[in-house]
Amino acid sequence: MTSTPYTVADVMTVKVVAVTPSTGFKDIAAAMERWKVTALPVIEGEGRVVGVVSEADLLPKEEFHEHRPGLIEQMRRLGDTAKAGSTRAENLMTTPAVTIRPDATLPRAARLMADRRVKRLPVVDADGTLRGIVSRADLLKVFLRTDEELATEIRRTVVGRLFPLSREAVKVTVAQGIATLTGEVRDPDLIPLAERLTRSVEGIVDVHCRLGHPAGTGSS
């Protein structure tokens, strides 16, 4: 009953800095510094994502710069010691890349970032072609919506649809992302649903539902 949920396509950055498998170590580090990012997608061909190279992938070179790891440490950290001796993205990158589709919802993207412990996700189409990138900061953009914009959406998609006969008796206010619903409605059974749908509006921080039912009236 609510409006279409925001998707990754709504908040992703479409201008993406990427490197190829043959990009050298110093060029990767320079790109990260220039564009102020901590990870870069690695693409080949016409933009197919084959991996991601991050600061964490580059750090072993500095870590093992002054000393050679012993045999036990080499065995325990094969991946890191291999990257310490690598000079190109194809040997430094993490593969396969953790990616997401443009039509994925923001909660899904947030869960994927948390589960895989990454700060950003390359956004790819069905063929694996890079279309953008979405970061933790991008997912928070919905909380930049104005209070008036949020209140208007709640009135239209929640109050207007659940309580068409009582809509004029329901007051919706939003302050700092916190929505408050007050007034009396004819069908009290719909009040919990109204609170739940209001809470699901993208950008809402919390909900105070103070809707009631007129005394002495039926719920029909």
| Largest β-sheet summary | 3 strands, mixed
Q: Please report the number of helical segments.
A: 10
Order of helices and strands: HHEEHHHHHEEHHEEHE
What would you call the structural class?
Answer: alpha+beta
Mean pLDDT: 87
CA radius of gyration is 25 Å
Distance between the termini: 20 Å
Uncertain stretches? 77-82
Helical residue percent band: 25-40%
Q: Shape, please? A: elongated
Strand content: 15-25%
Tell me the strand order in the biggest sheet: 5-6-7
Key phrases:
220 residues, 37% helix, two-stranded antiparallel ribbon, three-stranded mixed β-sheet, alpha+beta, single chain, elongated, 10 helices
Summary?
With 220 residues, the protein is α+β, with helices and mostly antiparallel strands.
Can you describe what's shown?
- A three-stranded mixed β-sheet has the order 5-6-7, covered by helices on one side. It has a two-stranded antiparallel ribbon with strand order 1-2. The chain has a two-stranded antiparallel ribbon with strand order 3-4.
- Helix 3 packs across helix 5.
- The chain is elongated.
- About 35% of the residues lie in helices and about 20% in strands.
- A hairpin with a 2-residue loop joins strand 5 and strand 6 (about 180-185).
- It has helices spanning about 10, 25-35, 55-65, 70-75, 80-85, 90, 105-115, 135-140, 145-160, 190-200, and strands at about 40-45, 50-55, 120-125, 130-135, 170-175, 180-185, 205-210.
- The protein is built from ten helices and seven strands.
- The chain has about 220 residues and is α+β, with helices and mostly antiparallel strands.
- The chain starts with 7 loop residues before the first helix and ends in an 8-residue tail after the last strand.
